[in-house]
């Protein structure tokens, strides 16, 4: 199916789809990045008000997927957890939440990707592993594909919406040149799993990188 069709489908149609064809501005600093990617609904993370902005322009994408559940964005919007769970933090309202998140995530209820953090914000998606000599979260835009991570194949809809997301992101965040999977940089992780193929990125010109 033609790219424009999926763009139209993702946005609910209309002139907005064509506006995405216009060039984004070239940010020379984090302050000049847009907060939002045009055409994406927000399902904000609980952590959105509390996390810092990037110290430097993001230069890579990290791919994740929902662990065992399919509703990734819905969980990450308010990641309640039991006391003692991995990454669980006691919050000011007395509840425990896992400090996890990604800039974009698959919404099961909307059947598309939604935005959960500003493009200027550093998110706790891939821990503190080094990539390109720097702590990865400090210079990466992160996305959660649908769960579970071991689905294979993924839907054609998800693949097309992912490719639409990448091409839109690269127009608005021109500093991005690299990509990696969470499983490429953390031996304990399996996401985004076998249903994701590097073919999904083969028109982007991005370079794959590993841990280090
Ligand atoms: Zn992950």
Overview of the molecule:
It is a single chain. The protein has helices at 3-11, 16-19, 72-76, 156-172, 182-185; strands spanning 60-65, 88-90, 96-98, 104-107, 112-115, 130-131, 134-135, 140-145, 178-181, 207-208. With 212 residues, the chain is an alpha/beta fold. The longest helix is centred in the C-terminal third of the chain and has 17 residues, at 156-172. The model is unreliable at 12-22 (pLDDT under 50). Zinc ion is lined by residues 64, 182, 189, 191.
Layout of secondary structure:
Blueprint: H1 3-11, H2 16-19, E1 60-65, H3 72-76, E2 88-90, E3 96-98, E4 104-107, E5 112-115, E6 130-131, E7 134-135, E8 140-145, H4 156-172, E9 178-181, H5 182-185, E10 207-208
Helix pairs in contact: 1-4
């Amino acid at each position: 199916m033609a790219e424009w069709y999926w763009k139209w489908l993702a946005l609910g149609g209309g002139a907005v789809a064509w506006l995405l064809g216009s060039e984004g501005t070239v940010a020379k600093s984090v302050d000049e990045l847009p907060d939002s990617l045009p055409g994406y609904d927000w399902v904000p993370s609980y952590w959105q008000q509390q996390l810092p902005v990037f110290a430097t322009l993001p230069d890579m994408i990290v791919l994740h997927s929902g662990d065992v559940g399919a509703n990734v964005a819905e969980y990450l919007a308010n990641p309640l957890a039991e006391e003692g769970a991995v990454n669980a933090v006691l919050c000011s309202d007395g509840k425990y939440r896992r400090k996890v998140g990604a800039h974009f995530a698959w919404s099961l209820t909307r059947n598309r990707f939604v935005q959960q953090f500003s493009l200027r914000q550093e998110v706790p998606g891939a821990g503190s592993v080094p990539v390109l000599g720097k702590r990865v979260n400090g210079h990466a835009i992160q996305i959660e594909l649908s769960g579970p991570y071991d689905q294979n194949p993924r839907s054609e809809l998800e693949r097309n919406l992912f490719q639409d997301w990448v091409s839109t992101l690269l127009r608005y965040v021109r500093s991005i040149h690299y990509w990696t999977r969470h499983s490429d940089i953390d031996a304990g992780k399996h996401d985004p799993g076998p249903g994701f193929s590097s073919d999904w990125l083969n028109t982007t010109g991005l370079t794959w990188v590993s841990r280090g």
